[in-house]
Structure formats: C-alpha cells, structure tokens
Amino acid sequence: AGAETVKRAVQLDAASRFQESLVCYQEGIDLLLQVVKATTDETKKHRYRQKISEFTFLLDGKYHKQIRIEENATGFGYEKLFHEYLTEIVSEVWVEDPYIRQVHQASRYLLYNFLRFCEMLVKGPCKVKTIHLLTSYDEGSGRSQQMTALEEIKQSLSNYGVTLNIDFSSSIHDREIRFNNGWMIKIGRGLDYFKKPQGRFSIGYCDFDLRPCQETTVDVFHTKHTKKM
C-alpha cells in the first residue's frame, strides 16, 4: 500500500498537483514506516528502509523552490509570500532571526516587522496556537526597549489565544521560519527585506505589498517529521 501511494504521488507530481502529491508522498512513507515496525525479518526491514530512503530523497528534491526578489520589487508582503504554506493544519510556528530586536536599526523596523508577521498568522486561515521566537539580545541600552516590545507583543498575542515563547542565543546566525506542516522558509534578509518608506504618509508605509523590497533570495523546503527505523 505504501508503494502504491508513492506511485500515486509521482503521478500527481507529473500533473503539477504538488500539494496533493506531497500528501501522498508523506502517507506512503508513513505506511512503509509502519511496515518496518511490524516486520521481524531483517532482510525485509533492510529493503523497506532502502525504499523509505529513496522516497525521502525524492521528496527532498521535489520540494525545494527558490524565489528571487529583485531590488525595488513590490508585491512581496508577508501574506503573499507565506499564504501558500499556511494551511489550516498549521498550529505552531518557529522563527529564528538574530535581529528581532531594535525598533529602529539602520532605518528599518525589525520588531515592527515581527509584529506584522504575527498579525498575518492571527488573521490567516491557519489556527496558530504557539509561536517560538529565537533571536539575540540587543546591545547596550536597546535591550530594555527590546524586552519591553517583545513582552507587549507576547501579551497582545495571548488575547488571541496565541502563546509566544521567546529564547535568546548569542551564537544564532541563520534566519529561517518553520511551520509544523513541514514547510521551512529561509529568507536571506529574514523578515527585514523591505526598504525604508519615503515618508510616514507615502504609499507602502502601511501596506507591505506596495513597499519596495531590497534584493534577496527566498528558499522554500519541505521537511519530514519521520523517525529513522
């Protein structure tokens, strides 16, 4: 049954029905994992593990998409960028970005960007219950402002039934966002890929879809939450 399900996934993939094929790939792998658990024959176990490895590798290769955001491009607000991956089953989100700290740094608004991202999650089709933020401490006098702002965001999210867990690391460098439906998005500039608006009353100040962007690359992957047998 697992092999037949994966065969169906390949057919859906060829028909460009990517979301459906992804579900079939995952179901097929899960079925084969169940077979491995129930099998006592070591030869069969080895053969099934090989198949699982092949299908997992295939899934890795199929589900990597790269988006190139050009300098001054518009139309890349958070809703537009993430909506495809925020399915209804998303309930937990991980954000790793070392620069979610100063309200104003190099003319860009890091904490406000994170707040905007949280607003998108609250009003989206998903039912997010927990957001995990891993970032770095601000330096000097900015730390107090950082902590106050993050605590305010945390309290505000709790009013919508969302828990914000905040952790700090001095060695974090990578920037990535993960959803518990398996999608992982890596943005070269993290959430801070928008240019400074020309003024507080200029088009694009409030609507990020109309805000010019800085050049960056977005890599989208799908990870599998399966244990090795």
Automatic annotation (TrEMBL):
<dbReference type="GO" id="GO:0061952">
    <property type="term" value="P:midbody abscission"/>
</dbReference>
<dbReference type="Pfam" id="PF04212">
    <property type="entry name" value="MIT"/>
</dbReference>
<dbReference type="InterPro" id="IPR036181">
    <property type="entry name" value="MIT_dom_sf"/>
</dbReference>
<protein>
    <submittedName>
        <fullName>MITD1 protein</fullName>
    </submittedName>
</protein>
<feature type="domain" description="MITD1 C-terminal phospholipase D-like">
    <location>
        <begin position="75"/>
        <end position="222"/>
    </location>
</feature>
<dbReference type="Pfam" id="PF16565">
    <property type="entry name" value="MIT_C"/>
</dbReference>
<dbReference type="InterPro" id="IPR038113">
    <property type="entry name" value="MITD1_C_sf"/>
</dbReference>
<dbReference type="InterPro" id="IPR032341">
    <property type="entry name" value="MITD1_C"/>
</dbReference>
<dbReference type="InterPro" id="IPR052817">
    <property type="entry name" value="MIT_domain_contain_protein1"/>
</dbReference>
<dbReference type="InterPro" id="IPR007330">
    <property type="entry name" value="MIT_dom"/>
</dbReference>
<feature type="domain" description="MIT">
    <location>
        <begin position="2"/>
        <end position="54"/>
    </location>
</feature>
<dbReference type="GO" id="GO:0030496">
    <property type="term" value="C:midbody"/>
</dbReference>
